[in-house]
Amino acid sequence: MDIFPNKFKINKVEKYIYMKNTDIGYIIVYPYIDEMLILGNNDHMIKYIKKMLTNKFYMKYLGVIDIIQEIKIIRIFDR
Question: Residue 5: pLDDT above 70?
Fold first, then answer.
């Protein structure tokens, strides 16, 4: 089941990475086994996607990620 029909682009290399770029920011959704990574530069977009997914699926927020698939994640804040 495609949970993002016609709204997100599917990455050509990694078929399970969904991306969306708008005038107000970008968001990347990466479902991985029983977890999901949601990245973006706009908090409102991230909150909207989390709410949309929570309405469709049982989900639990596990907090800010620091490592996924042995890759260290570093958050950068533009001010």
Answer: no
